Amino acid sequence: MAAPSTIDQIAERVERLLLRHAELRRTNALLAEQVAALTQERDALKSRLNAARARVDALLERLPAATPSRTKEAK
Fold first, then answer.
1. For residue range 27-75, what is the model confidence (pLDDT) as tens digits?
2. Which residues of 51-63 are buried (b: 16+ CB within 10 A; e: fewer)?
3. Residue 66: its pLDDT value, please?
């Protein structure tokens, strides 16, 4: 059997590169979707954190003012 010609070798390599390119595009699209989902999740968590902080601050404001601590007298 004759060795494949240079054109055939180039054509085969181009086909492999095209397949790899398509695979990388699909992978990139999936990763972009994951980034978008994680960004949305992060934003939601930041919002929840800010709401929790506001609730804690409101509770702290409702606490009575601190009284000075008394020292124990020597016996």
1. 999 999 999 999 999 999 999 999 999 999 999 999 998 776 666 655 5
2. eeeeeeeeeeeee
3. 73
Tell me the pTM.
0.65
Cα separation, 19 vs 31, whole angstroms: 18
Rounded CA separation 57/60 (Å): 5
Q: Could you give the C-alpha distances from 11 to 4, 6, 29, 58, in angstroms and in order?
A: 11, 9, 27, 70
Task: At 20, list the tokens.
Answer: 């790899």
State how far the alpha carbon of 33 is from the alpha carbons of 26, 30, 39, 40, 72, in Å: 11, 5, 10, 11, 64
Residue 67 backbone phi and psi in degrees, to 5: -95, 145
